[in-house]
Amino acid sequence: MLTLRNKISKIIATVLMGALSIFFIFPLLWMVSSAFKFEKDVMRFPIEWIPSATNFINNFKAVWMQRVPFGQIYVNSIKVAIIVTILSLLISTMAAYSFTKLQFRGRNLVFAMLLAMMIIPDQATLIPRFMLIRWLGLYDTHGALILMGMFSIYFTFLLRQFMAGVSDDILEAAKIDGAGHLRSFTSIMLPLCQPVIATVAIIKFIWSWNDYQNPLIFLQTKSLYTVPLGMTLFRDDYTTNDAIMMMASVSAIIPLLIVFIVLQKQVISGIALGGVKG
Description:
Elements: H1 4-35, H2 39-42, H3 56-64, H4 70-101, H5 107-117, H6 126-136, H7 142-149, H8 153-163, H9 168-176, H10 181-192, H11 194-210, H12 213-218, H13 227-237, H14 242-277
Helix pairs in contact: 1-14, 3-14, 4-7, 4-8, 4-11, 11-14, 13-14
């Protein structure tokens, strides 16, 4: 039973977290509000959160039906982000399972070498990657972004740490029943790892969606641009129109919100599971 002191501490913590949440959500609410306004009303102070006069239709048309092919750019980002996320999850989960539950010579050495590669910044590998992509004939294609994004040492490490907490007795029991590594991986390990897989999926999708450096270097044709590069086109065409820029920004984050809403249940259950284990 909670004491009075614990109740007060809990109330204070809740109030502080609520205030902090409002602080973080404030820019998002202002962006959504500005997307509905006329340009002259965007910077008006005090802020008119619910605009009395809206220009939503014109702002929407400027984003989706004018000079910048935002619809095609949107499709490009969705395609690349989904494919990269799926392939990255597939490769990272299999690699993590191998490093955790398979016994082979040099396993720890190979894993240590992979971890050592994490200290190398992406910028240091731009030139070798550029030369490799040109040699493979993938320059100025989405295949270049997919190839570079489908491998992740960080997510392999994260998944390995989670899988290491799964008891080997479960896999041994499955082995006695005749299950091989493929069956154990798909029927036992993956269901047990759903929370961390959902977390990795959200992070990977966001990273891929927001990636600016790789599309900037490896894409040249505007019809292949992703959303981060497409936003630069809006910046060039609508530098002085903040309302249209906010409409484009709101449109750009919608898929991220959808992915989080769809997968948040698994993430929350993972946090609760971690709390119980602790």
